Amino acid sequence: MATKGQYFAGFFANNGYTEIAGRKSFYVGPKVLLQPTADSYPVGGTVVINYTNGPNLTNDWIGIYKMGQVPGTANPSATWSYVTTAAGTKNFTGLPKGYYYATYLLEDGYTQIGEKAFFKVGDIVTDLWINKPVYTLGENITASWTDSPGIIKDWLGIYPQSVQTPNDQFTSYTYFDGITQGNKTITGNVNGVPSTTGNYYMVMFTNDSYAEVSNRVSFEVVGATLGTNEANSKTEKNVILYPNPAKPGQPTFIKSDYPIEKIQLLSAAGQLLYETKNVNDQKFSLVNENLPKGVYFVKVHTRKLFTLKLIIE
Length: 313
Hints:
Blueprint: E1 5-9, E2 24-28, E3 33-36, E4 40-41, E5 47-52, E6 61-66, E7 79-82, E8 88-92, E9 98-105, E10 112-121, E11 127-130, E12 134-136, E13 141-146, E14 155-160, E15 172-175, E16 182-186, E17 198-205, E18 217-222, E19 230-231, E20 239-242, E21 252-267, E22 272-286, E23 294-301, E24 305-312
């Protein structure tokens, strides 16, 4: 075909124009090339995409999408711009941290041509957290994350705290099919959860490498006999945490059957965020105004130690 553009092949009945099968669309024209000027851009910076050899049809456009998203009406682009020449440069600003790709789309639609151009915004992009800061031996560990690179060979590694430079001396490794946002439960003592007590961390790596793409999440593994003094409110109704889930700025109330000696608030990574001592009461109000959305743990020290999960949504 001599004219560039979008076409379709149809199957028609009895020498007429009644279509009796689905259309097959295709594109005829040059192969466009997109190229970012860098692999990584700072938050607040300008993402620069060069393009060459474009068909320059009416209302062709370049869209910027998060990894894992497929262009379409259900998945709007993070930002976009029309192209009016066969080659040129487009600048994009205001992108939050994340992994992205640029793609060339035809005539105000969602038909993509050429190869995608990949880049990231921000230094450590992926947010990783686990379901609790302390585990007993053999207990499953559930990891959750957002904004991963989306590569099929991305993986989660567990290391002893003594290994500060990740290498092949990991406790375990787990693939998760390159899902950009989700969770994975790690089980078993063979390439799974740690088989000895101690302090560990989990981190995400990309594309079968040792390049860290997430924050490190620290946790502790204790022996089963050492955890008998720690209880969850679902099994022993001696401590109540409400409302839960809570909203930012909304106080969380703690009610105990025993006088409270100390309260600690920990992040999902096990970092101590807040502590108060000498409460000497059976009730306490915890203010959440500075807490972003996420999962936290509240340790209530009474006659026993109670660990409760708090969700801010």
